[in-house]
Design goal:
Layout (H helix, E strand, L loop, with lengths): L2 H25 L7 E12 L14 E11 L5 H5 L4 E10 L8 E12 L7 E14 L18 E14 L4 E13 L10 E14 L18 E12 L9 E13 L4 E12 L1 H8 L7 H4 E13 L2 E12 L8 E10 L4 E10 L2 E12 L1
Antiparallel strand pairs: 1-2, 1-8, 2-3, 3-4, 4-5, 5-6, 6-7, 7-8, 9-10, 9-16, 10-11, 11-12, 12-13, 13-14, 14-15, 15-16
Length: 371
């Protein structure tokens, strides 16, 4: 087994561990005998976000999901701040309406249902945010499936964003419906990697076990302390270039971040970062320029940042510009989305996706220190 293959397998395992630890961190304060089981059906379509995606879309996609959901009651201040969110884990199956080139999608992911309206209403409207892993049964294969330009690997990252509603039909039963956007890709670990973007409608039923009339604790929460929070992150990634099944390249990065806490949920800030991506050597070589000079490969960027925070979780979003970059490949702007988890008051675990507009570059795995 090659070093890169071992790295990919360890990366996948680290995602699983990272998500499980994060889920348990949120769910550990929920009442152990108070949970919901729900099943929902899905119907929707794949978005053709590139011209060469059209041949993969053969019809509407459909499937179903099962959910195990903890309800929070406000026993911790963060639960009250976020209006008593539900913390769930979902198994999703989708038929992608193209058995020869795409097959089916199976996903397992934890998520949070963030309530958008008052907690005492029989109809709850929620923003659902989930991140996990998915398995695509028919990825690209240069011999048997060379027309699949969307997905280059079986295992992929998975993101689900959904606006949903739950209507209480009886003391324990509720009707669940919503509309969501789902994304699956591997962050260019294996090309091709255009990714799958899917929109689906969902409808189903949930049943509450334990404390069916959930009683919410309401305390007076002091205002958040508005302060500056500096941090530093070291990250590492792996990627392929455009040629499928080609060599893997390592990338390293160092990021200095500065966030201003606005309230318990939101922070704004910015930072500076530099990256050393070994794939840049090959990009130069493709232009008949062979170099090992640090200045030809190093990239330095400045960025504006936003982070949504729930307990020890944060969801960062970066928009940046390369202030120093000699190779024009991927353009002058970069972006970042992902998940960070505060292991202790100072130690941060990081899984983020570096992109250039809608094109994924690579996943960044890292650890950081918050001062």
């Amino acid at each position: 087994m090659s070093v890169f293959s071992m790295y990919i397998k360890k990366s996948i395992i680290s995602v699983v561990v990272f998500l499980v630890v994060s889920y348990l961190s949120l769910a550990q304060n929920a009442p152990g005998n108070d949970f919901i089981l729900s099943g929902q059906g899905h119907y929707g379509y794949i978005i053709s976000h590139r011209n060469n995606m059209g041949n993969l879309i053969k019809g509407h996609i459909y499937g179903g999901e099962m959910n195990y959901i903890f309800r929070t009651d406000g026993c911790k201040p963060w639960q009250q701040v976020h209006n008593y969110p539900e913390i769930g884990v979902c198994f999703l199956h989708l038929d992608l309406a193209n058995p020869q080139q795409l097959g089916t999608l199976e996903a397992l992911y934890p998520y949070a249902n963030i309530r958008l309206n008052k907690s005492d209403k029989k109809v709850s409207t929620n923003l659902r945010l989930g991140v996990g892993l998915t398995y695509i049964t028919k990825p690209f294969n240069r011999i048997t499936n060379h027309q699949n330009a969307a997905i280059g690997s079986h295992l992929n990252g998975f993101v689900n964003i959904r606006i949903s509603s739950a209507v209480m039909l009886a003391e324990a039963w509720r009707l669940e419906t919503g509309v969501g956007l789902t994304h699956a890709s591997n962050g260019a670990i294996s090309t091709p990697n255009l990714g799958l973007n899917m929109v689906t409608l969902n409808l189903g039923l949930g049943y509450a076990f334990g404390n069916k009339a959930c009683i919410y604790r309401k305390d007076t929460i002091p205002p958040a302390v508005k302060k500056w929070e500096p941090s530093i992150l070291a990250v590492m990634g792996i990627k392929e270039l455009e040629a499928p099944e080609g060599p893997k390249y390592l990338a390293y990065g160092l990021q200095a971040n500065l966030y201003r806490t606005l309230n318990y949920k939101n922070s704004l800030g910015g930072g500076l970062e530099m990256a050393y991506n070994t794939a840049t050597k090959q990009v130069w070589a493709n232009d008949s320029v062979y170099t090992n000079k640090l200045g030809d490969i190093l990239q330095v960027g400045a960025k504006l940042s936003y982070a949504f925070t729930m307990h020890r979780f944060s969801l960062p979003v970066d928009f940046g510009y390369y202030v120093f970059k000699k190779q024009a490949y991927n353009g002058s702007f970069f972006h970042r989305i992902g998940v960070r988890y505060r292991v202790t008051d100072h130690i941060i675990a990081n899984v983020t996706l570096l992109t250039h507009w809608a094109k994924a570059d690579y996943f960044e795995w890292g650890i950081g220190y918050r001062f």
